[in-house]
Amino acid sequence: MAAAMSFAFALLASCISVLHHGGAGAAPPANQTAGFLDCLAASLPPGVVYMRASRSYQSVLESSIKTLLFDTPATPTPVAVVEATDASHVQAALRLVPVPATVTVFKVHRSRNQSASYLLTRWQQVAPSLPSDVFLRVVVQNQDAQFESLYLGARAGLVAAMAASFPELGVTASDCIEMTWIQSVLYFAFYGTGKPLAMLLDRGTGRPDRYFKAKSDYVHEPMPSHVWESTWSWLLKDGAGLLILDPYGGEMARVAPAATPFPHRQELYNIQYYGFWSESGTAAAEKHIGWIRGLYREMEPYVSKNPRGAYVNYRDLDLGVNDVAGAGAGVASYEKARVWGEAYFKANFQRLAAVKAKVDPDNFFENEQSIPPLPR
To answer: Which parts of the sequence belong to the Berberine/berberine-like domain (predicted)?
Structure first.
């Protein structure tokens, strides 16, 4: 029952705020759209639903857009945006767990000249096997690897854990900072220390100020050190971005891949290829996106296969988008969607499509990578 509910919630999440016109598939009939909007208006409190005719629609929409790539006249837009205004509106998507009063963090830099390639190679073996109260990721940019850790406990415990599991990194007590868990959220969101917690509630109200593009991979076997050496040369190229390496293992690996829609639980870690730029125009976009796609191609021999996995929340439209199975049918092609759907969900994609066929057989809720109904 719990697994079935998990799949239903995943499908619901893919539906919220994704009904739009001008997208990959045929638009729903006008009477269906109007009926849906009437239902929203009648069922939800005033002030949480913004329709295209609403004065605040554009500003609310733009505050939710994180990259200027998705803020163009050609970008499909939702017919309505539903805004969460109370904790009860999001509680179904969250599970609270206890955390200690004190946590400890560090950010330790090691350059290419400081054996960063060796440390990255070693990190692949260490990070997924660390105790469940230690998280250690890496941000790789320019010729530098920044090792970032969160430990659920006091400074002495983190220093001891690093000394036991990863002495090569050379973490000392002076590298570590004690704080509360919520302060660590600010810290890892690049706000630093000593900032007011209210900053976490500030989503901003204007358009995004830059472009970015992300792709992702999963790594099942440790990469040899020569891969990291070749990666440094990519990070010197014009238009280079950065890599974020997030380890799995721990609680992630204790859940069976078929128990929830998210299946990538036995991988060592996830790679995010992240490019960002502020200059507008086609030339700038092609330079930065070209860098991401080039490095992504270079990594193909060393990452997951059959299918090559991807993380759904990075929303990579390079993997493919929905189209229409038949003229005027308004139903996306399941076979075409498998290309990206199985990258995100593996074998669970068919199960999600079966749920979609029961709850939304006409594909009323759709976007470029929404889950299509499984053909009968």
So the answer is: 310-372
- Could you say which of 3.30.2350.10, 3.40.190.10, 3.40.50.300, 3.40.462.20 is the CATH number of the domain covering 103-201? 3.40.462.20
| Active site (annotated) includes residue 273 | no
Q: What is the CATH number of domain 211-314?
A: 3.40.462.20
pLDDT digits (tens, 9 = 90+) for 175-186: 999 999 999 999
Which tens digit of pLDDT belongs to each residue from 72-105? 888 888 888 888 888 888 888 888 889 999 999 9
Q: Write down the pTM of the prediction.
A: 0.88
Q: Which member of 57, 314, 334, 344 is catalytic? A: 314
Strands 242-247 and 211-219: unpaired
Residue 302 corresponds to which tokens in the numbers above? Answer: 């060393």
Q: Give domain limits for the chain.
A: 2-92+320-359, 103-201, 211-314
